[in-house]
Amino acid sequence: MSSQKVSAAIIINPISGGRDKKAALEIIKNGFPKDISYELIFWERPEQKDEIIKRVRENNYEIVVAAGGDGTINQVAQAVIGTNSRLAIIPLGSGNGLARHLGIPLDTRAAVELIGSGREIKIDGSTVNGTHFFCTSGIGFDALIGKLFAESKTRGFFTYLKLIVYNFIRYKPEQYCLIVDGTAIKTTAFLITFANASQYGNNAFIAPQADISDGYIDIVILKPFRFWQAPFIALKMFKRTLHLSGYVDVYKGKNISVSRSSAGPVHFDGEPAEMGTTLDYKIMQDLIKVIVS
Predict the structure, then answer these.
(1) CB neighbours of 232 closer than 8 A, spacing ≥ 6?
(2) What is the pLDDT of residues 15-57, one digit of tens each?
(3) Fewer C-beta neighbours within 10 Å, C or N terminus of the chain?
């Protein structure tokens, strides 16, 4: 008597990272674990969100696979909140911050194999003004860059780098007031990142000590610095030592309110948005289950 196969939905964004997904799709189809039956769902337009979330929940898939970048993973992860489904990740984005933090292989074939052999962990999720994120969210310079990157015709690390260099000398740091679990912090910042995971992507570790399952958001405040110091700060980021810089303050919190002088860009898991002068960040511990190595 054969046992019933595990059911899965593979939700793929065919344009994440600006890459053609035909080769990845062939690897997924040919290499998917034989003891797991799957349905392939293409998430091609933002307005499909409600339809796909409804479909995932109604079908009670045991595994829901997000094949794409951090933005796709964010959207798919929201579909499994409050369910018994496990999230699996096939990284196909440009930065792949959450996958890198969780140690999920960037090689498509290896990531597919992991779906059948990996273990399950619980990870935290956070919100900014009610909008979910699982990796990082931020305000200030990185939010501006996120907005410009989304508007760019090209993708990838070098597009990020060009945008950063071009806009750095034109950017004016802002003043902020944070209330972190009841404690007030006033600061002038080049950027502030709210991190569940340790990095933006591409191994740029903005919050190297962040723990995605500790029930806290890591708050990284990068204070103003001179242009010539930028390469040294960037080097610390890639060496996982940014938290040791004299230009960086790090806090941890569960409920954070941020006030700023004017509305402006915010990013969450690489996706840009415009929000107002008050931002409320909240952590939700053990929000979803994820398959990792």
Answers:
(1) none
(2) 655 566 889 999 999 999 999 999 999 988 878 889 988 999 9
(3) N
Nearest to residue 34, comparing CAs of 65, 54, 8, 59?
8
Q: Which residues constitute the domain of residue 272?
A: 131-283
Both 99 and 40 in a single domain? Answer: yes
